[in-house]
Amino acid sequence: MKSLAIIGAQWGDEGKGKITDLLSLKSDVVVRYQGGNNAGHTIIVKDKKVVLHLIPSGILHDHCTSIIGHGVVFDPEAFKKELEDIKKSGITVNPEKLKISGNCSVITMFNKLLDHNRENKGPIKIGTTGKGIGPAYEDKISRKGIKLKDLLDYDILLQKLSANLIEKECLFKNLYDCEYPSAKEEADRLFELGKLVAPFVTDTFSFLDQARKEDRKILFEGAQGILLDIDYGSYPFVTSSNTSFGGIFTGAGMPGGNVDEVLGITKAYTTRVGEGPFPTELFSELGEHIQNKGNEFGATTGRKRRCGWLDLPLLKYAVKSSNLTSIALTKLDVLCDIEGLKICTKYIYRGEELDCAYPGIDLSEVEPVLEDVEMFKDDFKSELSNELNTYIKRIEDELGIPVGILAYGPERSEIKFLKDFLN
Ligand code: IMP
């Protein structure tokens, strides 16, 4: 296997960071292709916590080239801070190790202001991360976005920002009544930041094409999860990118057929941050217990994550929509020793039984059918208990793909590979 995609199979925060980090040890190239600094991968390296938001996990390893593909929305200020933090942890970052597409869309201050104002004053609250992600993708799709390469030419930057501000100014002045920078102030700020980013800007499309021809091992690092996908997710409570498999083809610039395997990451239960329907959500003390035991607080915003049972109809949907070839089951330690353990096997939806979700289903209307599962008590060092083996087998049978990885704690060592990847 020469290329592998790692994709969140739920609503994000499935523990992709550690797995991506470990598998990037075996990779030559690691690519981010969608989202932006709304992501948060927490990785523990030698007892030190490193949080990556925008920069691919490959940066932790000197032999890897990390790529930020053009499908990413790029906040240069967040990049500056992340770069400083990573360097402080003793990790080397240079243009050999990190390559950024000049065609990434830039997150401007206008985008961040719009995100904040909509969340605080708009008609629907999505519970966004407040990083300006949605408005930056809107600018891209409506063909008035700022590209990273524009930061390298002041006159072009000022011209594009001036045009970009015309409509937004009406909103800032008349709807949101808020302070905002002028096009010139924003051009000055971004141009300065552009100088820092410039050495890393390159043609990542050709670099990847060459890497593929040379049979180098490529890892695609997904951010968020399939249920937050703009097309497949629980719209409108989604992020604004294609978090599913399809995002790779356009966002990294890697045509279909070039990804050998797709590893979906799922917790052994379900969590969600932000607003939106969540069929198996637990409102009981048990939900709070899982939240505390699993340290379910966002790496990007610190918000509490809502917790609930594993939801098979949603996972089956994730498998279908992204062609998942195997599953990593994470945070199994959190479910250990939990009395009254359950999984959702089906939905009752508008009077009918459903065993797999589909695009456009109204998840706020589904009634989850829950099944009791035998409690497991494992230390994961010795042989797995029969109860845990049964739990895993049940998931494999339902999804029709193997569970290739078990993760049971935040440390790099707290993981069991049941399958070989990138060999
Ligand atoms: P946005 O991506 O900031 O626009 O937020 C849209 C939705 O996606 C909100 O519900 C966020 O909580 C959610 N979201 C965005 N990024 C992540 C992530 O990395 N993990 C989990 N949820 C996320």
Give a nutshell description of this structure.
The protein has 423 residues and is an alpha/beta fold. It has helices at residues 16-24, 76-88, 109-121, 133-141, 154-175, 183-197, 204-213, 246-253, 285-293, 312-322, 332-335, 386-399, and strands spanning 3-8, 29-32, 41-45, 48-52, 65-68, 73-74, 98-101, 105-106, 201-202, 218-225, 261-267, 270-272, 306-308, 310-311, 326-330, 342-349, 352-354, 367-372, 403-407, 415-417.
Features:
single chain, alpha/beta, Adenylosuccinate Synthetase, Chain A, domain 1, Adenylosuccinate Synthetase, subunit A, domain 2, Adenylosuccinate Synthetase, Chain A, domain 3, 3 domains, ten-stranded mixed sheet, 20 strands, globular, binds inosinic acid
Structural features, described:
The chain has 423 residues and is of the alpha/beta class. The protein folds into three domains: 3-95 and 203-261, Adenylosuccinate Synthetase, Chain A, domain 1 (3-Layer(aba) Sandwich), CATH 3.40.440.10; 105-196, Orthogonal Bundle (Adenylosuccinate Synthetase, subunit A, domain 2); 266-417, Adenylosuccinate Synthetase, subunit A, domain 3 (Adenylosuccinate Synthetase, Chain A, domain 3, Alpha-Beta Complex), CATH 3.90.170. It has twelve helices and 20 strands. The strands form five sheets. A ten-stranded mixed sheet has the order 9-7-5-2-10-1-11-15-19-20, sandwiched between helices. Strands 14, 16, 17 and 18 form a four-stranded mixed sheet that branches. It has a two-stranded antiparallel ribbon with strand order 3-4. Helix 3 packs across helix 4 (133-141). The longest helix has 22 residues, at 154-175.
